[in-house]
């Protein structure tokens, strides 16, 4: 039986990049793998590796949970909780701090990017971020982890930590962690610049479609989205695996991004999408895309708005989820402590 674990940072203002890259896949996993247990965790401990305003952190946590549920994650089928409610994550992270090597963390590209020139002044937590991530996953002995491309290196680290623990203590305790990288639009790019990832921190709100955007705003943003001056390309731009080739993504990043978003939102393969729009002007693709977004995203945003008025319901979901998560993690932690030699 698979154990699926994934984490999402509590960020307010969730956008279609968060939805297509993560949440939509969580819903599919929940619905397609009935025997598996799915843990979907709002990682508030990871969030505080950089400064968080307390009031906003609370609000963002609730908004993320509301978005999970509105998108179709069912708290009766999946375990939804926030990380700080299950203290085993932190406890196991300490143990893994003593398993993980400095050299391994020094190689993490995300840390290098996030710290930049400011290395002396970022939190120690930002450096050990991937160790906490390994403990999230391994506290439940999870073996499958749906993530975006950018988290692959962190998952390799989780595998290395699990392997070293097993080797050092001569046990076969932790499973091999396998990333589930979803195809299509796992990387949704900015609507203003196809080379940048869609991000809530982009100063231009027109660079992204937020889950809670109004219908008019969705239409306007898609209308204004950057394109190029050619007509839409055909199937010849697919590589042997049926994806848009690297060359075409480099040549026409904005065109590729819109096609990929359309394909993912409307659940039409990229091949079909190219067939349907080959030789046409972007105006037609944009109209279809705006319609698809209004059909799929707008109702989710509406649900989120409603649920945010039912704070008690959301906190109950988190409480119940944390209880279920704890049961499993406590059992595992007992064994881990015994293996290490803690009395
Ligand atoms: N680091 C992940 C991200 O930024 C979030 C995360 C935290 C996570 N813990 C996790 C993802 C465990 C998968 C498994 O996207």
Would you mind describing this structure in some detail?
- Helix 8 links the parallel strand 4 and strand 5.
- The chain starts with a strand and ends with a helix.
- The relative contact order is 0.14.
- It folds into two domains: 214 residues, HUPs (Rossmann fold), CATH 3.40.50; 103 residues, Tyrosyl-Transfer RNA Synthetase (Orthogonal Bundle).
- By secondary structure, the protein is mostly helical.
- The chain is built from 14 helices and five strands.
- Helices cover 55% and strands 7% of the residues.
- The protein has a three-stranded parallel β-sheet, with helices on both faces.
- The structure holds tryptophan (TRP).
- The site of tryptophan has 12 residues, from strand 1, helix 7 and strand 4.
Keywords:
Rossmann fold, Tyrosyl-Transfer RNA Synthetase, 2 domains, 3-stranded parallel β-sheet, 14 helices, 5 strands, 7% strand, globular, binds tryptophan
Tally of individual domains: 2
Strand order in the largest sheet: 1-2-3
* Ligands present: tryptophan
CATH H level of the largest domain: which superfamily? HUPs
What is the terminal separation in angstroms?
31 Å
Strand content: 5-15%
Q: And the CATH topology of the largest domain?
A: Rossmann fold
- For the secondary structure, the number of strands is 5
Structural class: mainly alpha
Characterize the biggest β-sheet: 3 strands, parallel
